[in-house]
Amino acid sequence: MKNDIHPEYREVVFYDTSSDYKFLTKSTMSSSETIKWDDGTEYPLIKVEVSSASHPFYTGKKLFVDTAGRVEKFNKKYKKK
């Protein structure tokens, strides 16, 4: 494998903003924000809107998630003329 072409693979904390759930995993994503985890170490913080803690498929709850107006945008774009 070539050296210096792969992104850094490190531990990061993902924060689900809709359910206030945080989990530690490894990723290549980077962030300027950091958070202190339970073990006292600071990790980069990645904010996400949907995770397994808030997704209707995993929770079994019918939750309406439309933060960007995606349905309206789709209807406006593909509306019959």
Describe this structure in a few short sentences.
This is Large ribosomal subunit protein bL31B. The chain has 81 residues and is α+β, with helices and mostly antiparallel strands.
Which terms summarize this structure?
81 residues; alpha+beta; four-stranded mixed beta sheet; structural constituent of ribosome; ribosomal protein; Large ribosomal subunit protein bL31B; Ribosomal_bL31_B
SSE layout and pairings?
Elements: E1 10-16, E2 21-27, E3 34-36, E4 42-48, H1 56-59, H2 70-78
Parallel strand pairs: 1-4
Antiparallel strand pairs: 1-2, 3-4
Instruction: Outline the low-pLDDT stretches.
Output: none
Q: Structural class of the helix and strand makeup?
A: alpha+beta
β-strand amount: 25-35%
| Tally of individual domains | 1
User: How is the main sheet built?
Assistant: 4 strands, mixed
The largest sheet has its strands arranged as 2-1-4-3
Q: Count the strands?
A: 4
Number of helices: 2
Over the alpha carbons, how many angstroms does the gyration radius reach? Answer: 18 Å
Mean pLDDT: 82
